[in-house]
UniProtKB/TrEMBL annotation:
Belongs to the cytochrome P450 family. SUPFAM superfamilies: Cytochrome P450. It comes from Riccia sorocarpa. GO terms for molecular function: metal ion binding; monooxygenase activity. Its cofactor is heme. This is Cytochrome P450 76AD1-like protein. Heme binds at C171. InterPro entries: Cyt_P450, Cyt_P450_CS, Cyt_P450_E_grp-I, Cyt_P450_sf. The keyword Nucleotide-binding does not apply. PROSITE patterns: CYTOCHROME_P450. The keyword Metal-binding applies. Keywords: Heme, Iron, Metal-binding, Monooxygenase, Oxidoreductase.
Length: 218
């Protein structure tokens, strides 16, 4: 990306992209990328420790499709349960809690309210994901629900699932994030046996360092 930005200034394609703009764009991408993706992987591993039956099912899928070879990007389309686990994890523990502030470009009606032009609007993404009209037992981690629907991560269907927000300001890193999360989670499940540390109760998104892993005996 840095190369693209630098090339575009050299070619005078985007004259406003000076060094300062490029530096802050890189910082924004790094900030937006690192903590989010690692947190998503962290959450998924905690959920898998909480739900050993899901962990087992995922391990069996990877073993059947990929075998002993290390999972790579080209395997992902053949691993539907992995995709379901990762999407369900982003739904049930939505950590990008809100969008960044947006503004209305014209008068809008929403839920019976008039939202005036230029109003600052922030969407609480978690509320879409825990909405019982869209999701049965919304607070339960159940990856199977994503085998029965074809909801992508971009909120393009019915605004029931939008971990990366939706529309023109949707997270620009969504595809990269899903790729990284999928490959890392698959490799962690493939390589280690995961279990909850004994006597730790109520694992939740705010708790850290409560699971452990040991290499699988292969
Ligand atoms: C699981 C991982 C991630 C989640 C859940 C996530 C979620 C989000 C959300 C909810 C927004 C706000 C969108 C809005 O206001 O409508 C956002 C913005 C953004 N994200 Fe991500 N993100 C993730 C990973 C990444 C990655 C990997 C990158 C970069 C490679 C990235 C770069 C950005 C940037 C630059 C913005 C600001 C976009 C703008 O100003 O229009 N994010 N992200």
């Amino acid at each position: 990306m840095l190369m693209l930005l630098l090339t575009s200034t050299v070619g005078k394609e985007f004259p406003n992209f000076n060094d300062s703009v490029i530096t802050s764009l890189c910082a924004e991408f790094l900030n937006g990328a690192i903590h989010t993706t690692t947190l998503a992987i962290d959450h998924t591993m905690v959920l898998l420790c909480e739900h050993p039956e899901v962990n087992q099912k995922l391990y069996r899928e990877i073993e059947a499709i990929v075998g002993r070879r290390v999972v790579d990007e080209s395997d992902l389309p053949k691993l539907p349960y992995l995709s379901a686990v990762n999407r369900e994890s982003l739904r049930v523990w939505t950590f990008g809690l809100t969008t960044i502030p947006h503004a209305t470009s014209e008068l809008q009606k929403l839920g019976g309210y008039d939202i005036p032009t230029d109003a600052v609007v922030i969407f609480v993404l978690e509320s879409f994901h825990l909405e019982s009209t869209h999701w049965s037992e919304p607070s339960i981690f159940k990856p199977e629900r994503f085998l029965e629907n074809d909801l992508d991560v971009l909120g393009t269907k019915n605004f029931s699932f939008l971990p990366f927000s939706a529309g023109r300001r949707v997270c620009p890193g969504s595809q990269l994030a899903m790729l990284e999360i999928s490959v890392v989670v698959a490799r962690l499940v493939q390589t280690f046996e995961w279990e909850k540390v004994p006597n730790v109760k109520n694992l939740g998104p705010e708790i850290e360092s409560v699971f452990r892993a040991r290499p699988r005996s292969v």
